[in-house]
Design goal:
mainly beta; Methylamine Dehydrogenase, Chain H; four-stranded antiparallel sheet; 48% strand
């Protein structure tokens, strides 16, 4: 009997070693709000953890927040129709994609002063990202369906138009010279070779419909959030979809922190937290309440905080002629950042 029990115990220990218990996910919740004020137009935010800075797109300007005090410390003006912000910390420069001007504004990250003239891009630059291996900035131009490559050191345009064969959305880099971007109207991911300024690969992320936000894990796994209540977890090296966890309505951004991806679901006013529950299996493990309209997100992976632009809304418009009512107007001076932490 003793030998049988010993064998059973040994087998159990072997199973435990091969399939270790998955720790419960950390609990995230709203821990504060940062008052920005002004008009309620926004898109992406960018978190520079090392320098305790949060950059906030805000219609015709870009706000700079000190995350150690949660105070606005500067405003970068004339970033008309700004969508995104990219930071080249090694060069001391920041870049904004100014959608209405079809251009990029360059600024000094210490003084927050604009440097030189705007750099022309394709039509309606949306996402923008810095690729550190080549020291290049890439804009992803929604209306012209291409990418513009810029030398971040000199500000000169290297390649004015890299054809993407579709409408690009958010982008990420892997630190190895590759740039990844969602193609919203093709339900694909494209891979750019940053050095040669060309598309090196593309692959389908079906059954996603309308991918927008994109984030990347330290293991080089991509998370795309889609318009059909779904996230796509994919392996860009294999060009393969790994999982399709369900998320909330109207996501536009997703961020990674401490082993989890966080989808900002503006339509539902919450965040879907996605984790790897067993090797190769990804699921939504928690839902975190935020506020309606909070659809983009940035993460401070050192402080384990998430930042979501949002605003307060007036009464919804009534239904009329058989059509559903709409969301109320943004209340004046209510623009803010919802801070989520643990």
């Amino acid at each position: 009997m003793k030998s049988i029990l010993t064998m059973v115990f040994a087998a159990a220990m072997l199973v435990a070693a091969v399939f270790p218990a998955v720790a419960a996910p950390p609990v995230y919740k709203v821990i504060g709000h940062i008052k920005i004020g002004g008009a309620g137009n926004w898109d992406y935010v960018y978190v520079d953890s090392a320098n305790h800075r949060l950059y906030v797109s805000h219609g015709t300007q870009t706000e700079v927040v000190d995350t150690s005090t949660d105070k606005v410390i500067a405003t970068i003006p004339d970033t008309n129709g700004v969508h995104g912000i990219a930071i080249a910390a090694d060069l001391g420069k920041g870049f904004t994609s100014d959608g209405r001007d079809n251009a990029v504004t360059v600024f000094d990250i210490k003084t927050n002063k604009v440097l030189g003239e705007k750099i022309k891009t394709g039509t309606n630059p949306d996402s923008i990202i810095y690729e550190p291996v080549t020291h290049r900035v890439f804009t992803f131009n929604g209306r012209s369906g291409d990418s513009t490559a810029i030398d971040a050191k000199t500000g000169s345009v290297i390649t004015a138009s890299i054809p993407l064969n579709g409408k690009p959305e958010f982008a990420q880099v892997d630190g190895k010279g590759n740039v990844y971007a969602n193609i919203e109207d093709k339900n694909e991911i494209v891979v750019l070779d940053a050095k040669n300024s060309l598309v090196s690969k593309r692959y389908s992320i079906a059954p996603c419909d309308g991918p927008s936000g994109l984030t990347i894990s330290p293991k080089n796994i991509l998370f795309s959030v889609c318009g059909n209540h779904m996230a796509i977890v994919s392996d860009p090296a294999a060009g393969k979809v790994l999982a399709t966890p369900m998320i909330g309505a109207n996501p536009d951004g997703v961020a990674f922190d401490d082993g989890y991806a966080f989808s900002a679901n503006g339509g539902d006013g919450n965040i879907s937290m996605i984790g790897e529950t067993s090797p190769g299996k990804y699921e939504t493990v928690a839902t975190i309440g935020t506020t309606r309209g909070a659809r983009t997100i940035g993460s401070d992976q050192k402080a384990h905080k998430l930042y979501l632009p949002a605003a307060e809304y007036g009464p919804p418009t009534p239904a009329k002629d058989g059509k559903k009512g709409g969301r109320g107007a943004v209340l004046p001076d209510s623009f803010q950042i919802v801070v989520v932490g643990r």
